[in-house]
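Ticket #4471: structure export looks truncated?
Reporter: QA, pipeline team
Priority: medium

Steps to reproduce: submit the single chain below to the structure queue and open the exported record.
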Amino acid sequence: MHCLIVIPTYNRAGSLGPAIEAALAQSWRDLTVAVVDDGSTDDTADVCAGFAADPRFVAIHLARNVGTAQAKNVGLALLPFDAVTFHDSDDLPHRDKLARQARVMARSDLIADPCLPWGPRQGAGAPAPLHLVLTAHDHVTADGGQVKICRALSLVDDFFPNLQFNTGPLGDWVLINSGLFRREMLAQAGGFADCIEEDREIRNRLLMHGANVWLIEDALLTKFESPDSLTVQGATGYRSSRRERDRQAVWRAIETWRRDGVAPVQTMDLANVSLRQVVNPGRLAVAADLAMTPESRVQLAAQVAAAQAGHAMRAAA
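Actual output as written to the record:
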């Protein structure tokens, strides 16, 4: 199973290096680590250049800032993988994080127990392949506090808010962005919605599509909250008007699914994404099986070809 770690980043050169090193140091060796630089104006390109000699490393520098969701979509659209996980640019994973997730995902002994109402998509008594493997994590707050995040009920909080009452710190939920996604499920459900609640939205959409989910209760990742984190900033924080609008859209999608019984598919629109620079462009390939607009596929294919031709010319010089 070839695993991809995508690290979207924007002006985090100071913390990015250790995050890349920790990703490349994973004990699961069949992997690619890809930084998607979302138009940074600091020394991010210099940090990435320091890892160029590692054939498992790729850096895609975008010409302009498009937001975290679209940066993640760029990773999905341009890099081959059997399973993919997303790390923040200051995350420090346990060296066995990916190995433990991949080994759980590869299990073939899981059966849909007939005592539960599986429905037509997953027949009772049939094998139940895992589509998403999550992990608990240690969360270091901006004021230096540390808590373990492993609140499994949070996975269904938008579907069953009556199960959710605050029993821990604000934000005490299992984060989707450190989960390991099976490619086949993303091919069915699509990529990330272009919003700041992209993790919440894709989590719900995967559940609507019937994704089989496993939670590893050990904390295999340390995440850091900083004063400039999206969830701390006034414009995008937990109580911001922008985030509230995105949440309303997420909840409306659930209402529509309950009424119609049809799970939505998120088609990636990357036609306006421009690649400024690519480290190790030979690893890039435009995905043929993921939902993407035709314009996106054409534009990205042309840019990948140009990046690979330019690299070949420099190598021959």
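Status: closed, not a bug. The export was complete when the record was re-opened. Leaving a note from the reviewer for reference: Strands lie at 3-9, 31-37, 57-62, 83-86, 92-93, 132-140, 146-149, 180-182, 213-224, 275-279.
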